[in-house]
Amino acid sequence: MTETHFESGIGFARRADHHDPLSKFRMSFFIPETNIIYLDGNSLGRLPHRTRERLQQALDYQWGTRLIRSWNEGWYDMPSRLGARLAPIIGAGEDEVIVGDSTSLNLFKAAWAATKLQKGRTRLITDDLNFPTDIYVLQGIANQLGPDFEVTIARSSDGLTLTSEDLEKVLNEETALVVLSHVAFKSAYMHDMKAVTDLVHSHGALMLWDLSHSAGVVPVQLNEAGADLAIGCTYKYLNGGPGAPAYLFAKKELQEKMESPIWGWFGDENPFAFNLGYKPAPGMSRFLVGTPPVLSMTGIEPGLDLILKAGIGSIRKKSIRLTEYLMFLIDEKLKPLGFTTGTPGRAENRGSHVALRHPEAFRICQAMIFPADNNVKVIPDFREPDNIRLGVAPLYNSYEEMYLAIERIERIVEEKLYLNYSGERAGVT
Ligand SMILES: *Cc1c(COP(=O)(O)O)cnc(C)c1O
Fold it and tell me: pTM value?
């Protein structure tokens, strides 16, 4: 599937950039700081130029000038319009996705509604590779539904991947719902969406996918895989901006059966009738709660447009090449210095980041982000206890950046520059 030929010198990286059909997309992003290599697009994607223009227009024209009239000039239907725009990126129908609220809140609504559909089934399943909020939200649902309900966490046997045997051990006729991240936030392990969904269905359970680390960078085919529900955030590979609202997918035939646990007026069939009794809106709108955060929503569309323009197939192709190249450079330059990888070796089992592990990972990250001299700044993120995540965003990262980042890490460790940094954790790592 992938070509495995790489060369050690920087000349290889420069030639690869020269032949890269996606290299021109970098110009679509606002990159004011030079001498910086940003490898954290998997936590907060870069700002597209178009987004700055859109936000300025939303301020001056929509809010500043049109004021309340703007609700009928595009604000009111933003959640469904953005959902339709996002749908092809995740292999969903246009009327199967709604944008609003946070990922955590959408998980709560979707998982609660799914559990309620599964009468007599009382177990919620997730795995120990999942992002903590996903686990906590499920534990909170079980806590609210009562003592019969229980969350079971499937255990990975190697700490990086979850095999179908690992999962099958915890599935039975009591399983109501399985919630997994399509791509795991720490190891980048990517589940086979169709195979896992089939396995879960064979036990009569519903399947909910968290796409936070996959949408926009790996092909996602929710309908082809038969997925029941999905959620995900828009501020990572979709470049929607800090705290931008998330999305919720429910397959068509489930929508009318599902009930949101939060009966807000935006989820009512006619919010502006101001009726005294709630009636769920048809379709995905029933999952809305209150007034959408218009300015934050405004930032989402230009990022989606860029992904659609580049095409998810080309994005995935470059993502694989870049992560393979990283793995090659790590083998060659960093493994001799005591590094290991915490990421599956095969590209088809991997999302778009590489976890690099070292006992001094935290201080190495500090030295990367805050160089004492004029050296290039490299921005990864740190995940406890010893992971440096190198996130690869194919729309704005280059092969040369991969080379320079690994060279910088090599120097930090070879010259023990990290010894000058404190191991004390700040608020956000
Ligand atoms: C980033 C991420 C989230 C974030 O949830 P928020 O509610 O937006 O804070 C949730 N789940 C996964 C798997 C993530 O990667």
Answer: 0.97
